[in-house]
Amino acid sequence: MEQRLFVITGATGTGKTTVSRYLTRQYQIPRVITHTTRPPRANEIDGVDYYFETNASFFKKHYIEYVKYADYYYGSSYEALQAAWTMCHFASIVLDTKGAITYVQTLGGLVIPLFLTVKHAAALTTRLVKRGDQRQMIQQRLSSREYKRDLQLPAALSGKAQIVVNDKWSQTQQQVDQIIRQTM
Ligand SMILES: Nc1nc2c(ncn2[C@@H]2O[C@H](COP(=O)(O)OP(=O)(O)O)[C@@H](O)[C@H]2O)c(=O)[nH]1
Ligand SMILES: Nc1ncnc2c1ncn2[C@@H]1O[C@H](COP(=O)(O)OP(=O)(O)O)[C@@H](O)[C@H]1O
């Protein structure tokens, strides 16, 4: 069986991590762990949620791509992708839209892009508060150029990414199950 990578993208709070966790829980599909200079949130664990880096350690790694998002660096490595593919023919990765475009261009048909969105962007603020994000981090995130950019499906992913409107989790779950059935 050929390897495949679910690239899960969309704005902050749309549910990218939730979908990726569902793929692991329900289908044993591992997530590629990426690197970031963002400080960990209260419940995040180094090596599980991210590899948390300093500005100095971040630039010692070898990346397929890296981006700056709301003033922090994020990057993904071939080593982490290979580690996930060693466990399973399928893997997922959670990326901003710039990274998702790079993956589609670099890995072509191995990538299955999913673009997450919600009907009303105002719901995202509520979700971030509920998630326990610090108020100042929410402000910084929501006012970033990257957040605003990622609310829209980029032209480069149009016709390639499957769009998942994650308003009601039960419906999202059904759609994800259908995507998995088509793929496996
Ligand atoms: N391009 C790229 N984006 C990443 C990488 N790791 C995480 N991201 C994205 O960076 C953005 C910010 O992530 P994070 O701070 O965890 O915020 P969240 O989206 O609210 O969970 C999100 O869009 C992530 O999908 C990476 O290695 N490369
Ligand atoms: N359909 C949904 N309805 C309500 N809350 C949701 C839904 N999907 C995810 N959430 C919650 O919204 C918050 C943001 O989701 P998360 O997966 O962390 O988003 P992202 O990774 O895109 O930033 C989390 O607290 C998550 O539990």
UniProtKB/TrEMBL annotation:
SMART domains: GuKc. One of its GO terms (cellular component) is cytosol. PANTHER family: GUANYLATE KINASE, GUANYLATE KINASE-RELATED. SUPFAM superfamilies: P-loop containing nucleoside triphosphate hydrolases. Keywords: Kinase, Transferase. InterPro entries: GK/Ca_channel_bsu, Guanylate_kin-like_dom, P-loop_NTPase. The keyword Kinase applies. Essential for recycling GMP and indirectly, cGMP. It comes from the Bacteria. Pfam families: Guanylate_kin. Belongs to the guanylate kinase family. This is Guanylate kinase. GO terms for molecular function: GMP kinase activity. Residues 3-181 form the Guanylate kinase-like domain. It catalyses: GMP + ATP = GDP + ADP.
